[in-house]
Amino acid sequence: MITIQESAKRWHIGSEAAARTLRRTTQEGMRFVRGRLEHRLRTSQAHLRYPSLNVTIYSDTLFPSLKLVPGYTCAQLFTDGHFFACMYPLKRKGDAHCALVQFIQDVGIPKGLLTDCPEEMRGEWNHVVKKYHMKAKMTEPASPWQNRAEAEIREVKKLARRTLHQAQASIKFWCYALEWAAKIRSMTARD
User: Fold this and answer.
1) Domain range enclosing 80
2) Do residues 69 and 144 both lie within one domain?
3) How many domains does the chain have?
4) 79-88, 101-110, 130-139, 143-152, range with greatest mean pLDDT
5) What is the C-alpha to C-alpha distance for residues 41 and 140, in angstroms, rounded to an integer?
């Protein structure tokens, strides 16, 4: 990471202008190469294509007790633990990486990502985490309170269940009700 003094010296500008410039630009795509530049550097900078979220996002998979309409068997929830939630229905838990990619495309790239599932730290999920330069962490075993997605899942489920009951809709449409409930909770002003 370049310092204010170093950038002011390199760019022949004042330290205040250098500080303002560094606050408004990213240093995420910097590369440092040792030796001679004989080989072409790949330009894979996927982490610069989407907005950066300067927040830790908590994620967890929820499983309903019955089969949902279009064959969805579970859903992936992403939350900041306070006011934001986003839900993606999945056909199987192994597709959680697809939900993560969709979240990145819809919302942005979180700086930190916390899950409570060891499977989500391997395979395709881990490939997506590395591709977008996220810092992934996992909760300690038997410590569900560390993952704020657990509480958000409970609240989203409550709202979805209440809504389906009031609308007298079939429980089979639970995946759509979950998505709707997560969006409503994100848009509602709370204390």
Assistant:
1) 49-187
2) yes
3) 2
4) 101-110
5) 38
